[in-house]
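Quick log. Single chain, no ligands specified.
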Amino acid sequence: MNITCHGAARVVTGSCHQVELEGTNFLIDCGLFQGGKDLNRLNYEAFQFNPEDIDFVIVTHGHIDHCGLLPKLVKKGFNGEIYTTEATADLLPIMLSDAAFIQEKDTEHENRRRQRQGLKPREPLYTRDDAEKIPPMLRQLPYGESMKINDEVTIRFRDAGHVIGSAIVELFLTERGNEIKVVFSGDLGQWDVPIIEDPSFIWNADYVFMESTYGDRLHGKRKPRKELLFEQIMNTYKRGGKLLIPSFALERTQELLYLLSELKTERPDFPDINIYLDSPLAIKVTKVFRDHPELYDEKARSRTDKPFDFPGLTCTTTAAESMRINVSEDPAIVIAGSGMCTAGRIRHHLKHGIWDPKNTVLFVGYQAPGTLGRILLDGASEIRMMGLTLAVKAEIARIGSFSAHADRNDLTRWIEAFKEKPKKVFLVHGEGKTIDKFSEYLDQRGFNTAIPTRGNNVMT
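-> predicted structure:
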């Protein structure tokens, strides 16, 4: 048996792991690389395997860094089935259509530049036509149910507590009469967060592939995230400014809406302020959340109000509606994509507001190296975007505890719940220094860890 990491190896994005048995060849995830130019170039390289040889794909969840190269996989010849949970199957058509639209628009912009330089035009990584081929391939599997795919592979999904529909993948692999259990954690969430259930514990495995995004740090828990959010709202409101929140369309936006609806109910001093959800993608994703209350935790299920649709919230779908937000001088809360400021409407809001000291740019999620979000968090005094050089005068703030990823303590809690230590724990989905520190930390606690590199064959 070979397991090869084609992505999320010493980086946080591009999750893609190939499992090869004597008679079966499949992938766990097929994600887009996100970040700076060096990472983005990897998306345009040929796959390190032949897509026509892949029998099927298992997708852990709907984030683009785990599913965003599926249309390219199909474009290059993959024609198998895609196994995932029910909620993720609802999300994938939405997320991939949006990703394809971005690919088309980015390529259109790039080709105008190439034309001016006398260069050949470039094809988009994939198109919406490619993305539309994905839904017929989807096969849904509820949490906790085992599915025998063939004589060599049986799979079972457990709740990863990361985003709605996110899964830990249990693989029961049979080769030459021997059964081996391999677990892929996918992305693990924090405990005790709103809306969805906590991550599931797994009791046994021979080998584990475990995410390590925040393996060297603890999320700030000085105050509950709801109180920290309220402080940012009030500080910006008192200055008469706009609170601009770059937010991931999947999970982070819904958690923000959930907490804002609670604050408006619980806090009599909550200001009379317009709240805009300025993301067509996030609006569609929020509908999937509404459609799957069976995946909520007990507190969310018990709410009698509508946490994703409350007075004062305006969902803006058209570009004209979005532009009117920037024309208005009234204080406002603006939630817009993309979460790392690499695309989407948030860039237009930054163009109109990053130079104004009344405003706040509040980051509530991971910012990959090389992204505009990371550049702002690192303290840039000016930024270059949309052909302009803009002074950074707005307050730049961050609430780290909003992360959908487990921190070091949560990751350790999950791996130490195994009744017997796995033979080896392969650490993936983490940056260089972070993953090195986490590996050393787990080794000191008696685990046998390894850190695959991209294209590294892991022989078990």
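Residues 2 and 202 are 23 Å apart (CA to CA).
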